[in-house]
Design a protein that fits this description.
alpha+beta
């Protein structure tokens, strides 16, 4: 299981996948190439995307410290991510993907509001 940030997901959104490509994430692409497989479960954590596509500005966005408001969202998503991993261990990846990849279901499972 690899957990990493994802620009293509809105801030605070979780997505669990059983396998697939790196989707442009350089760090995860490196891991996949070292392991020589695409069959690696991953939990993607949305960090949103800056309003630009200029590579240097995107790189700065990814490596910058989150704002205070973003920290609050990330603290809540951390709780949801831990719960997702616990569900994964108990129920397996297919069932857990069905739960957490649909935010309204995940909120009911955890009894929490929007992140």
């Amino acid at each position: 299981m690899v957990i990493f940030d994802d620009l293509d997901l809105p801030m605070g959104v979780l997505r669990l996948r059983e396998r697939g490509g790196a989707g442009g994430h350089q760090g995860f692409a490196h891991i996949l190439s070292l392991l020589e497989t695409h069959h690696l479960p991953r939990l993607r954590v949305g960090i949103g995307h800056p309003s630009t596509t200029e590579k240097e500005l995107v790189r700065t966005y990814v490596t910058a410290m989150p704002s205070n408001q973003e920290w609050l969202v990330l603290e809540r998503v951390e709780v949801r991510a831990v719960a997702a991993l616990e569900l994964l261990l108990e129920y397996g990846i297919s069932h857990t993907m069905n739960l957490i990849n649909h935010s309204s279901t995940m909120q009911r499972v955890l009894g929490q509001g929007e992140c």
